[in-house]
Amino acid sequence: MTNFICATCGTQFAAKEQPPPKCLICCDVRQYVPPQGQEWTTLASLRKGHRNSWQQYEPGIFGIGTVPEFAIGQRALLLRTAHGNFLWDCISLLDEATIALIRSLGGLRGIAISHPHYYTTMVEWSRAFDNAPIHLHAADREWVMRPDGAVDFWEGEKKELAPGITLHRCGGHFPGGTVLHWRDGANGCGALLTGDIVAVMPDGMLSFMFSYPNAIPLPDRAVAAIGEKIAPLAFDRIYGAFWERVIWNDGHEIAGRSVARYREAIR
What backbone torsions phi and psi does residue 247 show, to the nearest 5 degrees? Predict the structure, then answer.
């Protein structure tokens, strides 16, 4: 029995003797099945040709991403706090070097993920770190392809993981689309970890999409609602889903202008 991984989105499925007939994540309009068809791999195979790279962005936060790039290509964030370490979003590759490095930094208190495209091998990560709880919004329950007792389906509009570490449901890209507010980030000015629920774009602004690869926009009302959710939060920095997608300063002001820009364009 093998936990097969979709090579296009990086999602790991429940153990089977043969790969699933299709990846439900990729068959959804927010993702895609490539022209050559569905392809599958395993964690053992992935470890043979890939490794994880690290980058420290500021005291207390590290990026972790796979090279060569695999599947969607996002990087995770390791958030270190006085109340324990948290993994924000997830990547498919988990190897012994990554486990050893995270253990040397204090292990994991929990895992929180913005949306289903980044669930990947979350159960492997949890089990490697003493069954660390995986915090997912209950509105996206149907997209969990490998159920596990470590998954905490939280409900409502926000969830505090630890003092100064709070999840906020924004919706949009997925009904349970979540961002993480780190109160002490950016030298105490606050940081917002957004995945691509609130996507940092190449021009240093933000955008909001129903489907990124298929260029399907969100309606005005959805983006207005996201703006209302993040407006009360104090933050100067925004960490998107990819290595260089970081807004270092003036994040709150840029977020407000980005919401207004999007709404003007979509109208």
Answer: -100, 115
Q: Quick one: tokens of 125? A: 């990560």
**Cα separation of 54 and 100, whole Å?**
13
Tokens of 263: 């709404």
Domain definitions of the chain by residue range: 5-266
Whole-number Cα distances in Å, 91 to 31, 77, 114, 157: 16, 10, 12, 25
- CA 98, 16, 140, 218 dihedral sign is positive
Would you give the DSSP letter of residue 87?
E
Using alpha carbons, list the distances in angstroms from residue 124 to 131, 134, 169, 201, 248.
9, 11, 25, 30, 32
267 pLDDT more than 90: no
Question: What pLDDT score does 81 carry?
Answer: 95
**Separation between Cα atoms, residue 246 and residue 185, nearest integer Å:** 13
Q: What is the mean pLDDT of residues 139-165?
A: 98
Based on the number of CB atoms within 10 Å of its own CB, is 197 exposed (0-12), middle (13-18) or buried (19 or more)?
A: buried
Question: Model-level pTM?
Answer: 0.96
The rounded distance, in Å, linking the Cα atoms of 249 and 63 is: 18
CA distances from 92 to 5, 8, 119, 170 (A): 8, 11, 8, 24
* 5-266: CATH, from 1.10.150.20, 3.90.180.10, 3.60.15.10, 3.40.190.10: 3.60.15.10
> Cα separation of 99 and 84, whole Å?
16
pLDDT tens readout for residues 71-84: 999 999 999 999 99
